[in-house]
Structures are given as structure tokens and as C-alpha cells.
Amino acid sequence: MLKLALPFCFAFTFISGCGDSPNIEELCAQTISDYAAHRDNPGAALPYAELFTADGSFKLGDTVTEGREALIARHQSSHEGALWEHNLSNIEVFEKSGVYFGKSEVLVRTGPADNFPAREIKASYRDIFRIEDGRCLIKSRETTITN
Question: How far is Cα 57 from Cα 140, in angstroms, rounded to an integer?
Fold first, then answer.
């Protein structure tokens, strides 16, 4: 199980000069972190969608968005008139029977530019990952609102 503060972990690995490439848990933890950065950037719909497998899915309530094209459309429509800020915490990645899973907590702040943040949402993410071409991609992400 991997539970870490991502910036410190990756900075330490880089500074230490260790020649080892990141392990799968670290790659998946970085994917979780990258998700927040791309999700908040209105111009990053493609990099956001590329964090998912080609058939990857994002579930929020009863709504499931599946496939990269649908994820791009979701990202773009969510940024129409709204700003977003995803603050992740308690990131954990673990392997069970050859499958990698992740869980994290998120505080989302959102609202129009002239009234930001109008809303704060607490939620949790539960991920299933797939390793493809040396990358850890999200196969499925289920979001549960906790407030």
C-alpha cells in the first residue's frame, strides 16, 4: 500500500538521484494527482481524457461517462462559465490479485469567475487502474459525494 504526499515523494526521488523508475503504485498515485491538475485546466480536455483507458469511465451518482470522446465533452462542458479547483488528500494505491486500485479524498471548489467559489463539495474517489505501455491509466473512477 502506498500513502504519500506526492510532491515530496517525487521531489525526493529526483533529488536522491536514484536511477530506479517509479513503481506502479507511484505511477498510479501520479495519475491521481495529474487528474486534479488537468481537471481544473479548461484547456486540458485531451490530457484529462488521456488519463483514462480508451474505454475508461467516470461515475458520479447515476451518471456514467464512458470513453475518451465522452470524457472530453464532459470536461469541456463543465468549464463553460465555471472555474474548478480540486484539492486531493489521503491518496492510497494498492494492488490486489494483480489489479491496482486507488482511493483518495477531494475537496472541490467551483463556481462562476465572478463568484468563486460559490460551492464546496467533499467527495471520495475509488479507482481501478490498468497499466498500458508503462502508464497507469484510470479504467474506472467512481465518485461519492460525502457532504
Answer: 5
Q: What is the CATH number of the domain that holds 106?
A: 3.10.450.50
Could you identify the residue written with the cell 505511477? 27
Would residue 133 be called left, alpha or beta, if left means φ above 0 and alpha means ψ between -120 and 50 degrees? left
What residue ranges in 21-147 does DSSP mark as E strands?
52-60, 63-66, 83-96, 99-111, 119-132, 135-145
Q: How far apart are CA 8 and CA 106, in angstroms?
A: 19
pLDDT of 6 over the 70 cut:
no
Q: Are strands 52-60 and 135-145 parallel, antiparallel or unpaired?
A: parallel
Q: How many domains does the chain have?
A: 1
Give 80-127 pLDDT, tens digit per residue.
999 999 999 999 999 999 999 999 999 999 999 999 999 999 999 999
Residue in the block written with cell 507511484:
26
